[in-house]
## 1
Amino acid sequence: MTDEEYGFATEQVHGGFQPDAAHGARVPAIHMSSGFLFDDFDQARDRFAGTDDGYTYSRLGNPTNADVERRVALLERGVEAILVGSGQAAATIAFLGVLQAGDHVVAARSIYEGTKGLLVQNLGRLGIEVDFVADQRDLDEWARLVRPNTKAFFAETIPNPKNDVLDITGVADTAHRAGVPLIVDNTLATPYLVRPVEHGADIVVHSASKFLSGHGAGLGGVVVDGGTFDWSASPERWVHLTSPERSLGGASYVERYGSRAFIVFARDVVASRIGPTPSPFNAFLLRQGIETLSLRVERHSANALAVASFLEQQPEVTSVDYAGLASSPYRDLAERYLPRGAGSVFAFTLAGGEAAARTFIDTVQLFSRMTHLGDVRSLILHPATTTHAGKTAEERAEQGIHDGLIRLSVGIEDVADLVRDLSRGFAALRGAAGSVGSVGLEARVGSVTELAALEHAVPGNHVIAEEL
Ligand SMILES: Cc1ncc(COP(=O)(O)O)c(C=O)c1O
């Protein structure tokens, strides 16, 4: 690519591409090689010294992985990215690149339970403390939880399952007033829906296992540095980045690498030592996914809005937590940060509690019963007995995870088929299990004409499914 500004769909296909000088392969090769040959004695020495930037060993860098890193960094408008083996590895590398024993993090309570566990059970044992913000819209609460040893804010752009969209700029400004970076998990939005760096976030992490891949065939994670945080403003707070470093000839990471100081430290000192290196084959799968990201996420979001609107009309449903709906208390934030769509992971709550959720989930046929998100296939899960089973009933109630709450990750199938499948669940609740053909569905969504209209409401509904 040239320096010209391209649109998202062009960048997701071409961004970061480096021509294959040896063979001219249009799709970059998968470099399944643990190590790389040195031409001679001097080249080995120079690569170890860092004066020759060729590859040495795949834990430290691999051409296939680097290809994906360049593309994600470009899409997120960061200065550099590190590809790792999972989303959890990405969060770990980002935290360990910023924090040390004695530090404190302020995090949103609505973050992924696995990341909460990482902060509390893993980093907690290393002497890093965390406080959780109960209402992430309340910027005063973020500010109130700041302590002298606070070193980072952490939140998700679209948390699941409650869809409580983050006020990225509000939280970033609060973090910056406290002199700390905002680290954001952008997994469920993807850079197609929002680029957190453009709204003030400093570091972005992803579970690339979800929408970035889309195919559900392999895990991955990415750390992206926006290059925006000024580590030199309070050098005593970030001694690992601002102190003289023997391996850099006495310069600090900030002196040597400027706005890339964090990501170079995270790559060379944290990731390369801990070693969450992805297989180049998984990197290849991820890149294949990224090339259709905008098409999928557009379709996911349109399908999700249609499904959420359908759910909202059903008498058994007490609430639908989808920020794309006019009824959502997060609609204003969705309009501000997610003008292209509010993603496709959300929850709805059945009045009948766990028994109703069990009947519903055991009745659907097209939605897959599984714990994953952002797959091209539609997925369904009961958080109270799975992802949030380790919480007390009070903790679940505080987070709005009621016994009748069901999480959906709406896929890219034909939306009429998804609605028909969910209608089976409602029919079962109404004591009509098994009788939902097109006639049964008419009774639920109005008429076949109405169903057809729903299908037409989703642009390119058939075309995109066939293309993918
Ligand atoms: C928002 C979010 N971040 C991170 C993760 C962890 O990702 P991975 O499973 O790739 O480690 C998940 C997993 O569900 C997630 O939902």
## 2
Amino acid sequence: MQIHLRGALLLIVFTLCNLYLVNKICIGGYDVVAEGETIGFVENIEDVTDITEKMDNELYESYGIDRSLADKIELVEKVDFKNNISDKEELERQISDLSDLICCGYTLIISDNETITFKSYDDLLITLAKLQRDYVMDNAEMGFCENIEYKKEYVSKKKIYDVETGYNYLKENMLLNVVSKVRQEYASTINYDTTQINDDTMYKGSVEIIQEGEVGESLVSAEIEYINGEENTRKIISEQIITQPVAQIERIGTLDPPPGYGTGEFIYPVSGTLTSEFGPRWGSTHGGIDLAASTGTPISASDNGTVIFAGESGTYGLLVKVDHGNGYVTYYAHCSQINVAVGDVVTKGETIALVGSTGNSTGPHCHFEIRYNNVQQDPLSYLK
Ligand SMILES: [Zn+2]
């Protein structure tokens, strides 16, 4: 008898312990059953109806179909381990799979505007990565100009974009701009300063370089931000000078030149047609250019100068030579008439002769030469 009592006591203690444990690890809830198969276990009915209602709404909005997905689901009361409560994400996916029209999607929100929806968060991330890959740079910190968020929602399956179509849509509509920030080190040149010293013994317009400038070099470390591969900003972090630049020093003439002193810039002496350029011609060298114009067309001094020759000169025919005082002398040949005499000071643009065909000439034109220290130059590289 005593033994029995002890046994009963033990049984009571044992049962109490079990009840305590059961309450601790078990819970009353519902098996979620669809098409004869258990797809989850929930504590509250709302855990399921929250999902089905959202899907029903979307089904009605997208297709005009008034149907409750909940009809496909049976909830069976049951006590089960707490551990068996379905993961919310997993349950959503399972329920979402029951509809051939609606599914759970991830909508990309760009700067507060809802855009396209992907079937998974992975697809959304892969699409964003694909956009960035177009502008990927070594060691760059990649991002977007726009603020990006996403939201999970139930949508019509026909609204779902895959990685490829999503990428094309975002690209074509230019909804996202890729930012890449990269730190670069590079050599940079440092420009030199130019110091000018006025010199009243030199004519205006003349420049003498006393000391040639030299560029310096530095090592620059910069943070460069690119948007869609184009440089947007460049922030210099540090600059280390390797060689200092050397300033250029120039002497600048301030003295007014006397009349007849050339400016160094030449104008066309005749408005005519260029019929022969400077350089090799018929086995020899053509020492100037030919400007064809009808007989009597005025010939102008190409720059300020002094007439040093005016008259007949062999194959040149009637010829005028003007000395510009700066090392340059110009020739005007084959004239029909000369309007100046030796010693005359002429100004740029002033008529000095008329076009003709005297000397060795096949038709009316002006043969024009520019000589520097008596060496024939190509006039076309001087004329304006
Ligand atoms: Zn000629």
